[in-house]
Design brief:
The chain is an alpha+beta fold. It has a three-stranded antiparallel sheet with strand order 1-2-3. The longest helix has 15 residues. It has six helices and three strands. Strand 2 and strand 3 form a beta hairpin. The chain has two domains: 58 residues, no CATH class; 63 residues, no CATH class. 47% of the residues lie in helices and 12% in strands.
């Protein structure tokens, strides 16, 4: 059964409900409700990630098609690696700053410069994905 998808605006909800739905550093403006046997709600950035994963599994979008091959570009796999590493390894301190040495370590793992990693992390934060 294909779920029914509806769109809503987080600003119309209470602050407590907004924080429960969207855990992004910069609060999303929209959310999506998926209704079928069990209902679930995703914030805008989580819904984009969910949709992209479905398209990847179906083979409709691949890293080659989504991003042109470039030694300067970022693949979705690299972005996910950065996001997962910073979140899962608890690399953000209580002040909200990335812990010392994280950018350099990620740069060595991904073959990118420290500056490129720092720019990407700042971009991901502004986009609300981190």
């Amino acid at each position: 059964m294909i779920p029914v998808i509806s769109k809503g605006y987080l600003t119309a909800l209470s602050d407590k409900r907004q924080k429960k739905i969207c855990k992004c550093s910069q609060m999303c403006e929209e959310f999506f409700t998926f209704t079928s046997d069990e209902d679930f709600i995703l914030c805008s950035s989580d819904a984009k990630e969910f949709a992209f994963r479905i398209l990847e599994l179906k083979g409709l979008v691949t890293q080659k098609h989504a991003f042109p091959k470039s030694k300067y570009g970022w693949t979705t796999e690299q972005e996910r690696f950065v996001i997962n590493y910073i979140q899962k390894e608890d690399r953000i301190d209580e002040k909200g700053k990335v812990k010392f040495g994280t950018y350099t370590m990620l740069g060595e793992m991904l073959g990118k410069t420290r500056a490129a990693i720092k720019d990407k992390v700042n971009h991901l934060r502004k986009a609300g994905r981190l």
